Amino acid sequence: MEQVAAWRSHGGTQGVYTHQSTETGTPMTFSVFVPDHVPGQKLPVLWYLSGLTCTHANVTEKGEFRAACAEHGVIFVAPDTSPRGDLVPDDEDYDFGKGAGFYVDAVQGPWATYYRMRSYIEQELPALVAGDFPVDMARQGITGHSMGGHGALTIGLRNPDRFRSVSAFSPIVSPLNCPWGEKALGGYLGPDKSTWREYDACALIEDGARLPDLLVDQGDADNFLHEQLKTGLLVMACRKAGIPATIRMQPGYDHSYYFISTFMADHIGWHAARLKA
């Protein structure tokens, strides 16, 4: 692992790092904010998964998370959204290929060789972070935005023993039922929709996956709400399953980082309360 850059901020250190991934077969870049702490102390960690077209840099530069993470003593990790490089296959559209890994392990060619973001996020990156940063891996939370909200929900639902807390901003709640999901899951996984269910939060809940609670914020002026995000499907799934979810529709807010940064401190505080030792 190589440190690309580092800055002092809010009584902590914001770093950007790169490493050669065995899962994707490419160099991968991620950012980590570490609050100041007592030497030898282990801190809880919050993983943030970004949305379509994003890299680690979007939330790192615009997410406004550092003050809250410093206040609560939470490490914040932001990975990339896909493999990168000249050899990595891509698509001309913004919603498939580079910048649009959808946090799946692809099985269809030519994507299967490189697009292994599920294994990268669930296995490889946590092992790397655990070895090089002062994280307490018994205290992990996960959140994300849009495609990354989809990733946070599905990864959290598939790994309830790993993540004490799960939240999301404007998540794609059911890729089985929206154009983004149909394109991405169809392209990466193939036409058999039964294989898509492990990458659909509402389907996972319907199939028995559970969380102790959940926090979701969604802007009611989000232009993707009705066609792509379909927050109401998650409301119904949680209600039917008895999951005590707090799903808040925020008046006047859109899909941008102006929205995310407004509620970021709320989410970090919510996670911190659940990640106490």
Brief account:
The protein is an alpha/beta fold. The protein has helices at 56-62, 66-72, 117-132, 147-158, 179-189, 201-206, 225-229, 231-241, 257-274, and strands at 2-9, 12-20, 27-35, 43-49, 75-79, 135-144, 163-169, 214-219, 245-250. 34% of the residues lie in helices and 24% in strands.
Explain how this protein is built.
There is one protein chain. The chain has a single domain, classed as Alpha/Beta hydrolase fold, catalytic domain (Rossmann fold). It has 9 helices and 9 strands. Strands 1-2-3-5-4-6-7-8-9 form a 9-stranded mixed β-sheet, sandwiched between helices. The protein is globular, with a radius of gyration of 17 Å. α2 (66-72) packs parallel to α9 (257-274). The chain is of the alpha/beta class and 277 residues long. The longest helix has 18 residues, at 257-274. The mean pLDDT is 98. It starts with a strand and ends with a helix.
By helix and strand content, what is the structural category? alpha/beta
| Cα shape | globular
**Unreliable stretches covering 5 or more consecutive residues:** none
CATH topology: Rossmann fold
How helical, in percent, are the residues?
A: 25-40%
CATH architecture: 3-Layer(aba) Sandwich
Biggest beta-sheet profile: 9 strands, mixed
What is the CATH class? Answer: Alpha Beta
Q: How many distinct domains?
A: 1
Question: Which radius of gyration do the C-alpha atoms yield?
Answer: 17 Å
Strand content: 15-25%
Name the CATH superfamily assignment: Alpha/Beta hydrolase fold, catalytic domain
Say how many strands there are: 9
> What is the element string, with H for helices and E for strands?
EEEEHHEHEHEHHEHHEH
Sheet with the most strands: spatial strand order: 1-2-3-5-4-6-7-8-9
Mean pLDDT: 98
- How far from one another are the termini? 29 Å
Q: Total number of helical segments?
A: 9
